[in-house]
Transcriptional regulator, GntR family (Primorskyibacter flagellatus), 968 residues
Amino acid sequence: MAIPVETFFLTPDAQGTLQAQIQQMVAEGILSGRFQRGERLPSTRALARHLGVSRITVTLSYTELQANDYLTSRGRSGYYVSDSAPEPPAFSTPQKRHETVDWSRAIGQRFSGGVTPRRPSDWARYRYPFIYGQTDPTLFDHANWRLCAIQALGVPNFRALTTDYYDQDDPELIEFIARHTLPRRGIIANPDEILVTMGAQNALWLTTQVLLNPRRTAVIETPCYPALRDILTLSRCRLAPVPVDGQGLPPDAIPQGADVIFTTPSHHCPTSVTMPLDRRRALLARARDLDALIVEDDYEFETAYLAPASPALKSLDTDGRVIYAGSFSKSLFPGLRLGYLVGSAEFIQEARALRASVLRHPPGHMQRTAAYFLRLGHYDALIKRTAKALHTRRLVIEAELAHHGLTVAGQSTHGGSSVWVKLAAGLDTAQLAETLRLRDVLIEPGQPFFVGADAPTNFCRLGYSSIQADLIPEGISRLAAALT
Amino acid sequence: MAIPVETFFLTPDAQGTLQAQIQQMVAEGILSGRFQRGERLPSTRALARHLGVSRITVTLSYTELQANDYLTSRGRSGYYVSDSAPEPPAFSTPQKRHETVDWSRAIGQRFSGGVTPRRPSDWARYRYPFIYGQTDPTLFDHANWRLCAIQALGVPNFRALTTDYYDQDDPELIEFIARHTLPRRGIIANPDEILVTMGAQNALWLTTQVLLNPRRTAVIETPCYPALRDILTLSRCRLAPVPVDGQGLPPDAIPQGADVIFTTPSHHCPTSVTMPLDRRRALLARARDLDALIVEDDYEFETAYLAPASPALKSLDTDGRVIYAGSFSKSLFPGLRLGYLVGSAEFIQEARALRASVLRHPPGHMQRTAAYFLRLGHYDALIKRTAKALHTRRLVIEAELAHHGLTVAGQSTHGGSSVWVKLAAGLDTAQLAETLRLRDVLIEPGQPFFVGADAPTNFCRLGYSSIQADLIPEGISRLAAALT
């Protein structure tokens, strides 16, 4: 492709002749890797006019660069970066800047350094990736997603694609969520009680900002979703971790003074335990006694293949006390970045204002595509197919773990896409993960899920949403072999 | 379409027989508008199994509902919502909830109530929309955008579409921005100095969070972009508004104690004034003296059709003192929600961590589509075509304003897509906008752009990015007529 003429600037106080400056700009572009072999330079006429110099100056610069093999001339079609031009260095080019800003002082608030583990971005290159939350290309209905996206790109949807919705959402997606998605969870909500978010991450973040401040106390489950813990830590609220048992969060253990209770009743993260109906009622009663709010992260309810999904905690809530966070990241794909919040209109109004300030709205095209995919029934078919595959994988992984005498801690009664495994006391699964990585196996160490000083190191999560059933036995064998 | 069986739940402590409960669920679904005429009910067998009741109970409920004309039976194909079923009320259905939460207490932080004006979402239905920042379907290259999106939906891009990038971005978009977009602004940056954001709004928000806190002072231009003012107000930093003159922000007027200076040198918002090179250098020198940072919002540099775009302030910065915010919202479309931040790696690291906490990353599909559109040269062609059309419109609107004796305040020397108009002292453009709206003309009142107590009411912004040149004269005539 052609290098645009706008790339070139003369610096008024630069050293050297104009010709030398032009040569230097071109050479630096090539050496820094910005101009690549075979790319066409601007014509001498265009560059001369752009820089306000004579054409002969540019021609002399180009000729000199040609002699040095930076450029090659192809007759009337102009000058190109030579195929034998010097290679840009593999290391980063030295900056001409001499930065004087003291960033240790200039940064007003720090956000790096959370506990959320960084998973390798090249996970797909591992043969046995027991990782969580990525999309399996063998299960996802890519063809129909593509068709829905193409429909959403059509001329009748021009406004849905391009418009600035300000603080609003795609009305078609909101309508589908209200009429179909939420009623399946037993929830009835009006459009002003629903906000589309950039995935569940964004839903939890918005909720935290609206409900908490440094004088308020948030209850979190331990172990819990590490990203939630990072979000809460950044909000500088008070944190009250409550250990979960075999039925999820125990209401009696929630301390006095709790303002907001974060919970994952459908599938506790990371143990996959489902909270029974009795406990859900008890939790609501406890929240009422404390005059606390509940944030229900209903991730993964769609993967209920062992028993039907139980209605959401929100469906039992007559007080308006439960704020519900849903996501399409697990059931569709995480790169979609679409989720939703459901709560009282007063709450949604504040979350909407904050979302508008932070990012305005999730892209209209993604919203409209999701609305089509849902409405045409592809979503339901996908969920059925996924649940079936996950069920098979679950049976295999449980059998293999049992075969090797490994312990599943926290039995999921409804399904899910991961198992939580307890290994021998004192074992460090972070080290284990490193060892296994060299043997083509990825696992997730459990320590970051725990809140508090004495976090055990001998747990790990094995996701099975991105590994085929027939690869599970060898993967678990390698895990078991690394333990001996 | 079929009503999914999962929509139905039996409440354990509900009143009445099972049959009555089922009837009620169906009737409520119809009356609330969730089940619509012609939609198929679950089969009696499926619903019975789902609810754990006998099939005869479901059959009796359906028969009763049929007698009441809620349902109709179509022989072996099942039960459908009757075409003469009761209509859902046009008003919202009464909630069974009795909300007890005191939201005035439960909300920990408020975000609503900003000064950013809400523009009518039905602006496209007005014949003379002098509004700013929406996309003109006659200019945007929808066909090629669609082709790029379809390419980005292809099988080879499956990972780019679906993957959870965690805190990272699409490497192809980052590469294009680094190699092509930024060099046109005179900026050389490494990939770790670039972060993709959800539009310029998100870029400014992230910057504010990282750089400011309640003990720091932000300088803003007055008048200024109202959304920036809202963002800064929510950050609870100290605000120092500095009035702009005919060359933009005057460096000498920046007070001692300034920590971060927000400026729009390419086109001042809302006056469209371009800051000359000398003043840019003076501004950098002033920032160095104060040891302050500068946030350069380089929106709309692409619409330079009167004179070539001058290099960005960032290109003159050798200290690392300038943070650069770019956007594709104006040059492509706002619904894309893509922009970018450029700054020192230390700063970008914190902004990246915050973005990951708030929303993880902008959707991969939008990033990849933009990368293709840019790389294939459609973007440059679009910008040229847009600039040409804007130039024509600009000549028309200036001529019409002059014809009616109206004053353009703040002459843009480079281009832009709006004019800033000063009307007679004491006139209230908010009232004027209301009057004009009834006459099919939309304008933007100027008061929200000003910071401080004595904001003048007699300014307005007339955008011309969404109105055809041939409609401008009549629109301006109506504006002038409303003034007499």
Notes: Chain B touches chain A through 123 residues (CB under 8 Å).
